[in-house]
Automatic annotation (TrEMBL), chains A, B:
<keyword id="KW-0804">Transcription</keyword>
<dbReference type="InterPro" id="IPR008920">
    <property type="entry name" value="TF_FadR/GntR_C"/>
</dbReference>
<dbReference type="InterPro" id="IPR036390">
    <property type="entry name" value="WH_DNA-bd_sf"/>
</dbReference>
<dbReference type="Pfam" id="PF00392">
    <property type="entry name" value="GntR"/>
</dbReference>
<dbReference type="InterPro" id="IPR036388">
    <property type="entry name" value="WH-like_DNA-bd_sf"/>
</dbReference>
<dbReference type="GO" id="GO:0003677">
    <property type="term" value="F:DNA binding"/>
</dbReference>
<keyword id="KW-0238">DNA-binding</keyword>
<dbReference type="Pfam" id="PF07729">
    <property type="entry name" value="FCD"/>
</dbReference>
<protein>
    <submittedName>
        <fullName>Regulatory protein GntR HTH</fullName>
    </submittedName>
</protein>
<keyword id="KW-0805">Transcription regulation</keyword>
<dbReference type="InterPro" id="IPR011711">
    <property type="entry name" value="GntR_C"/>
</dbReference>
<feature type="domain" description="HTH gntR-type">
    <location>
        <begin position="3"/>
        <end position="71"/>
    </location>
</feature>
<dbReference type="InterPro" id="IPR000524">
    <property type="entry name" value="Tscrpt_reg_HTH_GntR"/>
</dbReference>
<dbReference type="GO" id="GO:0003700">
    <property type="term" value="F:DNA-binding transcription factor activity"/>
</dbReference>
Length: 225, 225
């Protein structure tokens, strides 16, 4: 659960950054120093900095620190595509969790033979990426499968959202268990089962398998999940 | 269920449009003529044209016809913001259905007192829009409530997605029941109940109310829903 002090701390930090002593590109004081300055915990500081990154004020460079990016704060798709933090990976996975199971459920019964062929191709591309043992490529190909589904849905918002996630996946920092044999086997096995559920028109089964797939994916790219 | 001929028809139409006899801005033959040309039903033609609009090839102008927009087909957030068709409204509502209930469920227990205040302000803005009897404003304010929730989630993708939906809502064509007294009363009543469930930290209740809210919203803006 997020700290209740977080939004207030965000306001205090942005007020500080908007003052004359900070210029774009400046490095912020470290977490420990900020916690002292604002009489709060380092955890609260870390949460607030993540918020401010999402709002476009800061850039968090892993192992380096936080840098002032924009005094007004803004956020654009362009910016999201370039992020490289674990926090960015977490948001990507969270968004997939929110969108994919419902998308799978609603599209299962709308698939034409041509759509099935398209999804079959996407599934074999995933197989190739797995053989090449390339985690960044696996992530992209994996998301592109669901982008193909979004294209079936004919919903412009979902098509573009999945496309953005696919572009962002290129830069993912992977901090999860990575590519152990077991992970790969279960990711691909669930994925093939998902494809079969889609092909044979079983919406509930497809939705359930999509959730399993996402869990395995999440374990690969995120720590402690 | 979508016609299985649709994807094939889409390919045939794009092949036709990419030929030399069509230039950007040209009006396509009418639905009846296209159905004759490709030996298919008008329903299939209509579905295919909707697909091609989403893919950026066409612009559908209600009561006027379809116009060639881009021979390569592309789709951008910018383009989605400017659409005015009932199909665009349908996609907007569908996306809200897919994203909002889950967002409400996960954020309920993460709300700080400052977040609650922000959502309370958004709720009273909705009340004002209702008093002004302005359907376009109601749609925008309504979506902005969920954008505020996305900001709590600190998830850049969801923040921007909801922002895009909010921008698109400005242009919504409303073809639903519109603003009858009963509609307005139930929209606002459900919304206040949703706010209370969020405030008192009841995730399941909040998720259920969010679905009711969306149903009422959908009836206002879409035909036959």
């Amino acid at each position: 659960m997020a700290s209740t002090q977080r939004p207030i701390l965000c306001q205090k930090i942005t007020a500080m950054l908007q003052g004359k002593s900070f210029s774009i590109g400046d490095r912020l004081p470290g977490e420990r120093r900020l916690a002292e300055m604002f009489k709060t915990s380092r955890n609260t500081v870390r949460e607030a900095l993540c918020n401010l990154e999402s709002m476009g004020y800061l850039e968090i460079r892993e192992k380096s620190g936080c840098y002032l990016k924009n005094k007004e704060g803004c956020i654009s798709w362009e910016m999201l595509r370039k992020r490289k933090s674990i926090e960015a990976s977490r948001q990507l996975v969270e968004t997939l969790y929110l969108v994919v199971p419902g998308l799978v459920r609603t599209e299962t019964l709308r698939l034409s033979p041509a759509d099935i062929t398209e999804l079959e191709t996407a599934t074999s591309r995933l197989g190739e990426a797995i053989v090449n043992f390339d985690l960044s490529m696996i992530s992209r190909v994996y998301i592109s499968f669901f982008r193909s589904l979004a294209e079936v849905s004919n919903n412009g918002y979902l098509i573009l959202l999945l496309k953005e996630l696919e572009l962002a996946a290129k830069n993912l920092e992977h901090a999860g268990t990575g590519l152990s044999e077991v992970q790969i086997d279960s990711l691909f096995a669930y994925h093939v089962e998902l494809f079969n559920a889609l092909k044979t028109g079983q919406p509930e089964q497809a939705e359930k398998l999509a959730k399993y797939c996402l869990q395995t994916f999440s374990q690969m790219v995120l720590p402690d999940s």
